[in-house]
Amino acid sequence: MELDDLKATWKNSTSNHTSTSKNKIMELSQQKSYGPVAALKTALGKQVMIIPFLIVVLIVQALRKPDLQADPFFGLFAGIIVLASAFFVSAYFILGNMSRSDAPVADRLKSQVRSLGQLLWCYRLVSLAGVVMLAVFLEVFKGVGTARLMEPWYEIDSWLRWGTYAVLLIIVFILSRSRFHKDFGKHLDEIRQNLSAIE
Amino acid sequence: MADQQRKEAFAEQIAGNEALIWKICHLYGNTPEDRQDLFQEIMVQTWQSFDQFRGEAKFSTWVYQVALNTAISGIRKKRRSITIMPQEVMSDMADHSPPDDEQLQMLHKAIRQLNGIEKALTLLYLEDRSYREMEAILGISEATLRVKMNRVKEKLRKLTKA
């Protein structure tokens, strides 16, 4: 069977189609998207809810116990909020770039691979920065403020403590990758597969 | 009012290109539900991008871009089992069952075995789109498209013989 021989039959096959009414087209266009970008937006939308909650906790604690403001861990908490907010802002712009679907197919595939890579990079960077901040605060502010509650931790040999921080970093690195891969790995693999079919 | 006019203009344009959208849905969706989901997602994506259509290219070229992008990378394979579209909307949609022609059915079966890009290429070729237009839609150079098209033809020949 030759493809060229079927061109006419293929084109005529449209004549059997009945059409969807314009009202239904309008109705369908207003439905919710179930594409990967929408899924990412939903997932991030759920996570972003934690920010106002954390800010409220931070303010309430600061008002209730003014001396807390001098506690380094209060700074750590605030730093984590800033980090998380930075991630959500970056994700917002990355998702904005991914949303456009009126570009040539090859360009869109490349842009999606790039955007998902950026998103993973941001996610991983923020997670790792959180662990580094925790380690720095624990080690720099020994015996100050809330760190006083960690007294047994400082009794452990410093090599073991630093080793634990390193292991924690590796775990977070792996977890951030596997979590992302679980959610979007299959989709990313499919995009890469299609991209390799182009190149 | 302006929004309603925009919606009507959109529906008007889509109605004129509906057949080509369904052809894409047929090639990329394996089940009737997949096709209807894909059709709906294409409607959502075209509507969301409608503001960006400046009329520099033909509307059909633009629709091909959005629809193929949605079919290739804009829809997640793993879907929930619940119906995403209200039943009354689905039942009012056009009946787009597979073609009766035996040769066309065989062709559809063979095309479904191709990868996403090859499917797009075959569709555009069957629709008699010029290589220049294919380049604009797919973002692949004309020379590469010609080479790929020859390979796809060979692949389809083998698939329909098997």
Account of the 3D structure:
The complex is a heterodimer of chains A (199) and B (162). Chain A is an all-alpha fold and 199 residues long. In chain A, 76% of the residues lie in helices and 0% in strands. Chain A has one domain. The longest helix of chain A is centred in the last third of the chain and has 41 residues. In chain B, helix 2 packs across helix 3 and helix 4 crosses helix 8. The longest helix of chain B is centred in the C-terminal third of the chain and has 20 residues. About 4% of the residues of chain B have low confidence. The interface between A and B is large, with 53 and 74 residues.
| Rg result of chain A | 25 Å
CATH superfamily of the largest domain in chain B: RNA polymerase sigma factor, region 2, helix turn helix motif
The count of strands of chain A amounts to 0
Poorly predicted runs of chain B are 78-84
Give the amount of beta strand of chain B, in percent. under 5%
Task: Describe the sheet with the most strands of chain B.
Answer: none
CATH architecture annotation of the largest domain in chain B = Orthogonal Bundle
Strand content of chain A: under 5%
Low-pLDDT ranges of chain A: none
- What Rg of chain B do the Cα atoms give? 16 Å
Q: In the CATH hierarchy, what is the class of the largest domain in chain B?
A: Mainly Alpha
On the 0 to 100 scale, the average pLDDT of chain B is 83
Give the domain tally of chain B: 2
Terminus-to-terminus distance of chain A: 28 Å
Shape of chain B: globular
- How many domains, in number, for the residues of chain A? 1
Helix content of chain A: over 70%
Oligomer: heterodimer
Q: Structural class of the secondary structure composition of chain A?
A: mainly alpha
